[in-house]
Structures are given as C-alpha cells and as structure tokens.
Specification:
Length: 452
C-alpha cells in the first residue's frame, strides 16, 4: 500500500443498478482526468459537479465513448483523502465501470486495496486511527444501535479523551522527573510528598479508565449483537420460544423429546439492538451419540452467550442438580423462564412465566434489556476490540506505576511505567512511537523559564 500513488476503485456495490460511483484519488488525478474529458482541467472548480462525456482517449480522431457521467473534482488537501480526487457518477453497468477503471489505470492509476482511500486520509492528517476505525465500524453496522454507536466515534471525542489523558500523564512524569535525584537524598520530605500526589493522580486516572473500559465492553457487545442461549431439558418449549422471539419458524417443534439435536439460531432486531437467539439441544443424560454431540454444542453455546434463558415446564429441580451447567452460567445474566403457562404449568421460582404460543413476549424482552443493562444512560466514547484492549493495557501500566510507588518508593521505576502508558496512547492513535519521548521532553522543558 503506497499512499503517494494514484488509486481508483468502485465505491458502490458491484451490482447492476441505476448508478455507480468510481473514485480516483492521488497526485495524478487531474492529469489522468485530462485524458478522458474534453473540458480543460485547469478550469475545474473544486467541489462542483459537472456533466461530461468520458472517452477512452479524447485525442483519438473518433474517440470511443465510455459513458456520460456527473464528475466532481475535489482539490487536495480539502478532500476526503487529502489528495486531489475525482468522483465519477456513472450509469450502473458493471461493464461501464470496468471500462472506466481500465482506462484510468492505463493513464497512471492503479486499483485501490481495501481501505486505501481512508489510509490516504490518515496519512495526510485528515483523520487519526480512531476516526478511521470509526468509519469502518459505521460501514459494517448491522443494526440501529450499532450504527448509533459507530457514529458517536466519528465526533472526535475519543481522540480528545486519550490526548487529554496523555497530557495529564506527561505532567505527572515531568513533575516526578524534577525530583528524581532526591530519591537518593537524605532529605525526602518534598520527594515523598510528590510521590504521594503522583500516586493519587494515577489512581484517579485508573478509576476514569475503569469506567471507560466498562462502557466500551458494553458498547462492543451491543455493536456486534447480543447472543441469547435458550437452554433447558428436552421438550420444555425451547424451539417454540425461539420461533416466537424471531417471528419465524426457525426450529422444528415436536412433542418428541430430543427433536433439536443441533443449535438452531435466528436473528431479530429489538429496540434497535440486534439479537441472535440460539435454540440448543435439550440437556439430559442419554446414550444417543448424535444427541450427545448436540448437547456438547449446547454447552459451547452457553459459554459464548451474553445471556441465558433457562427454560422449564416443570420446575428447575433437575437443572439445579446439573453442576456442569450451573458452573457455566454462574457468571452470566440468567433469566429463568417457566414455559407452557397455557397448559397450567406454574413455577414460583421462575423470573417470568409465559406461553410462547399465546403471550405477547414484550415482558420477556424488557427483562432481557434490564438484565443486560441496555438502558443506555451513558454512551461509550470508544468502540472496537482494539480500543478496548489498548485501554486495558494503558490501565494496567498505570496500576504497575502505582504499585511501584507504593512498594519501592522509586521515581524512576514508576516513571518508566507511565512512559509505557504514554507510548500505548500514541500507538492507539496511530502516532509514531518515537513521539513518546518527544512528548515527554516537550512537556518537561516547557516548565523551564524563558531563556533558560
């Protein structure tokens, strides 16, 4: 991926449609454009669209027409990529698209790789790595909630938060470095006081990161969609409940125990959140090899689920004696669902009693949202597993710094751990790792007097 090259790609799905958009971006964009349109490219007005005939070679005696299209020229650096770029709005034939792209390549462009337009934008300082990932998250959003979460990361607040954190950590380092020689002195009053202040500030940052990490974990769960495992003994109405929740006949319903022998799933967007409901094989002791394989998959599904609907039509006595199952669900949100209420089955131990055939399931859905804390009282500023991992690593480095202060009383050890956190912040934002020391020196020397 060479960001200085001029690249071209189809920016809309590769299907026959009314319109198709081809994007050209890079230093040679205007020169390449000059070969295929008769308009003088030196007169182009940036950000203005115009109708033009596109030719394979405008200088041919009888130039071959590719298409008549709307053309928009964007002049760098005031463009998405930071380079000169051109968008062609064509008629949506893939034959026309291929012909145009082949022609643009002939005059000096090359086919873009995945994400390369955004890579150009990142290189040219049009966005940082966090915003670039936010764009990708927005494109891949599969529900209203996922789209909202991804859109929030595009406002730049996440970048402001980590850069503000970095500046506070740099202040802590510079203050500590001022007293570094005093760690070997007999007079340590100021030294010990500075250590105490630094440790208090570090713990405040850890508390803030803990909160950000909790919100990010929740946002990531909601973005990818919630996995719900429907679990119970055979023939208690699990398949009927799955079908009712997704509004389709996904699972075969039969009075014969053991009908479901593999995990059956269905998806449904509820209140803007995508849910994947998984009907599992009935859990019981059996000598049937195939059914046992299904039960093993049930346990695997439970392990991967975000919440478990534990179903029964005759009480939870047998389930309560299943040690393996109880160990799997002990740290997960669980809703005990008493099924077949229409047949007179009542269970006072259940969290909810219902008939999947007759009842409106809104009460169950409300309970699921409550158990998973999906009320959205506070939004996350970060999204994505990468961001979550970096925040955790930064927090762990600060915990190590705090521990070093409390156990060794040595500034240089604590300072080194905070440097690691600053380096992680720079890496998270996609900045050069050499910038870490530059940041530290800049902050340290900014505290000197003018002229010193």
């Amino acid at each position: 991926m060479l960001v200085f090259e001029t690249i071209v790609a189809l920016s809309t799905p590769p299907y026959k449609s009314a319109l198709a958009i081809v994007r050209l971006s890079g230093p040679k964009s205007k020169e390449i454009l000059s070969h295929i349109i008769k308009k003088d490219v030196s007169t182009l007005i940036p950000n203005h669209s115009f109708l033009a005939k596109l030719y394979k070679d405008k200088n041919d005696q009888s130039p071959e027409l590719i298409d008549e299209a709307m053309v928009t020229f964007y002049q760098g650096p005031k463009s998405y990529t930071g380079f000169d770029s051109v968008d062609f709005s064509l008629h949506g034939s893939m034959f026309i698209v291929d012909e145009l792209i082949t022609t643009l390549i002939k005059y000096g462009a090359r086919r873009a790789e995945k994400g390369e337009f955004s890579a150009q934008a990142y290189y040219n300082g049009k966005m940082d790595l966090l915003k670039a990932e936010g764009i990708n998250d927005l494109i891949n959003a599969n529900s209203q909630r996922a789209k909202r979460l991804a859109a929030l990361t595009l406002n730049g607040k996440n970048s402001q938060i980590i850069h503000s954190l970095k500046n506070r950590l740099l202040d802590i380092i510079s203050n500590l470095e001022y007293y570094v020689e005093d760690q070997y002195s007999d007079e340590k009053d100021d030294y010990n006081n500075e250590l105490e202040v630094a440790n208090s500030n570090i713990k405040n940052e850890i508390a803030l990161l803990d909160k950000k990490i909790d919100l990010t974990e929740q946002a990531n769960k909601e973005y990818r969609g919630i996995i719900v495992a429907i679990v119970g003994e055979p023939n208690v109405g699990k398949s009927t409940l799955l079908n009712a929740l997704v509004g389709q006949d996904k699972a075969i319903v039969s009075p014969i125990p053991g009908t479901t022998r593999d995990v059956v799933e269905g998806q449904k967007e509820l209140n803007g959140v995508l849910f994947t409901f998984k009907d599992t094989a009935g859990i019981r002791k059996t000598d049937d090899l195939v059914e046992n394989l299904g039960i093993e998959r049930s346990y695997k599904t439970i392990k991967e689920a975000d919440i478990v609907l534990l179903t029964s039509d005759c009480g939870f006595k047998i389930i309560n004696s299943n040690v393996e199952l109880l160990n799997l669900i002990k740290d997960k949100p669980v809703i005990r669902v008493a099924t077949k209420r229409d047949l007179g089955h009542i269970d006072t131990e259940a969290d909810i009693q219902l008939s999947a055939l007759q009842d409106d399931l809104s009460s169950l859905i409300d309970l699921i949202f409550k158990k998973l804390s999906l009320e959205h009282k506070e939004e996350a500023d970060f999204l994505g597993q990468r961001e979550e991992d970096y925040l955790k690593h930064i927090r762990d480095s600060l915990k190590d710094a705090s521990k070093a202060i409390e156990e060794t009383q040595m500034i240089d050890i604590a300072s080194d751990k905070i440097r690691t956190a600053v380096a992680l912040i720079n890496e998270m934002a996609g900045e050069d790792l050499n910038k870490t020391m530059e940041d530290i020196y800049e902050t340290l020397f900014s505290k000197f007097c003018l002229g010193k």
